[in-house]
Amino acid sequence: MGRPKITVVGAGNVGGTVAQRLAEKNAYDVVLVDIVPGIPQGKALDITQAGPVCGYSTRVVGTNGYDETAGSSIAVITSGIPRKPGMSRDELLATNAKIVKTVVRELVSRSPNIILILVTNPLDAMVHVARQVSGLPKSRVLGMAGVLDTARLRSFVAEELNVPGTEVQAMVLGGHGDTMVPLVRQTTVTGKPITDRLAPDRLAALIKRTQDGGAEIVGLLKTGSAFYAPSASAVDMVEAIMNDQKRVVPCAMLCEGEYGLKDVIVGVPVTLGRSGGESIVEYDLTAEERTALQASADAVRDLCAVVDRLLTA
Ligand SMILES: NC(=O)C1=CN([C@@H]2O[C@H](COP(=O)(O)OP(=O)(O)OC[C@H]3O[C@@H](n4cnc5c(N)ncnc54)[C@H](O)[C@@H]3O)[C@@H](O)[C@H]2O)C=CC1
Ligand SMILES: O=C([O-])CC(=O)C(=O)O
């Protein structure tokens, strides 16, 4: 039996880097798909040629079609436009919903057992589109945002306290937008509560910077958005699933009553294992966090109603 196949759709900044990071694991076959002729083929060749230097022998195929994707275990979907400075992620809705709709159809028709990890923005609404189009169970349609938002908070706290980022644990829930919800009680530095180490006003400032973390990078780059930490975060989810780690990871998944949220996709702690999002873990939230999560879910629900109208029009 060969290696499991992971497809990456969109060979731009995020997708190209996801393919590179996956190739470096030396554990998968990687298929990179893009609509632009030459780009996925060129990037696949380039990544393959790094193999002898980096010590991997991953088969990486670049293509403009979907036949090579048949039998994929997971697809990481990054196809779509990124925002420009001054734009919100929600402004990408109409363009990216159409792209995600066609891509998901192509993938699922060739890989009926596939697990989808959405990256395209606006994230939570794109997970909704992928579920509607694919009809796959909720455990197999996930969105990457919580790992990234959490990593940003961990890195800001680490910088502030001059500790390694790996020593900071955190959990950011909610939609991937202005309404994301960092859980202060789950935030620790070398195992101790963050509130023992940081004054409330400093912590509030770092949380605000986390909420604006994507926009900060969009403003600096001028064209395009973040891709190193986003690609690392998507690959972290792939690894948790493929290695059946049963690790609790914040990611976007359909809630059916958990946290009091009904039929809405939003970032929640999910146990990731070989069948995808295996369960949603319910932490004790403060009343304030619960209200914030509800507000975040309401914002996602509004956006999903808009996308439903767009896709049926
Ligand atoms: N969930 C998250 O936390 C994050 C989400 N994003 C989102 O990811 C998406 C991609 O970002 P980048 O890679 O930086 O953009 P990019 O512009 O560098 O790459 C996007 C690629 O998608 C391709 N594409 C467009 N339509 C396609 C189709 N129908 N089929 C196949 N490929 C198609 C384009 O040709 C392009 O190569 C954006 O929507 C961005 O907002 C980016 C970072 C983090
Ligand atoms: O900010 C953006 O548009 C891209 C993204 O979602 C992020 O980096 O968090």
From TrEMBL:
Catalytic activity: (S)-malate + NAD(+) = oxaloacetate + NADH + H(+)
SUPFAM superfamilies for this protein: LDH C-terminal domain-like (SSF56327), NAD(P)-binding Rossmann-fold domains (SSF51735)
GO biological process: lactate metabolic process; tricarboxylic acid cycle
Active-site positions on this chain: 176
Binding-site residues for substrate, renumbered to this chain: 83, 89, 121, 152
Domain Lactate/malate dehydrogenase C-terminal residue range list: 148-300
Lactate/malate dehydrogenase N-terminal domain residues: 5-143
Alphabetical UniProt keywords: NAD, Oxidoreductase, Tricarboxylic acid cycle
The UniProt record lists the keyword NAD: yes
EC numbers: 1.1.1.37
Entries under InterPro entries matching the protein: L-lactate/malate_DH, Lactate/malate_DH_C, Lactate/malate_DH_N, Lactate_DH/Glyco_Ohase_4_C, Malate_DH_type3, NAD(P)-bd_dom_sf
Similarity-based family: Belongs to the LDH/MDH superfamily. MDH type 3 family.
Function: Catalyzes the reversible oxidation of malate to oxaloacetate.
Protein name as annotated: Malate dehydrogenase
Organism of provenance: Nitrospira defluvii
